[in-house]
Amino acid sequence: MNTQREYGQPQPMTWRKHCLQMIEQLPISAAVVLPGGVIEYANPCLARLLGLSQSRLAGSALTEFGPAARDLLGRQIK
């Protein structure tokens, strides 16, 4: 199976996996947040900072963590 498109560009899923791997290795707290404020992925630094597991953070709404979490986005999550 060919995993690359014409001109050697990786398929979209490959890019997504690559991006998540980069976020995983960041030495700072980072998360992938979906529209509406649901955490899709939190890296280990963020989990340590909040004292929660990555699996606990995934699928949680930012609103669960109070106004400070909403402020991280610079806007109000409704």
Strand content: 5-15%
Q: Distance between termini?
A: 44 Å
Please give the radius of gyration in angstroms: 15 Å
Outline type: globular
| Major sheet details | 2 strands, antiparallel
Number of E-state strands: 2
Structural class: mainly alpha
Average of pLDDT: 78
Sheet with most strands: strand arrangement: 1-2
Task: Note poorly predicted spans.
Answer: none
Helix content: 25-40%
Secondary-structure element order, N to C:
HEEHHH
Number of helices: 4
Supply database-style keywords.
78 residues, mainly alpha, two-stranded antiparallel sheet
Report on the structure:
It is built from four helices and two strands. The chain is mainly alpha-helical and 78 residues long. Strands 1-2 form a two-stranded antiparallel ribbon. Strand 1 and strand 2 (39-42) form a beta hairpin. The longest helix has 14 residues, at 12-25. 8% of the residues are buried.
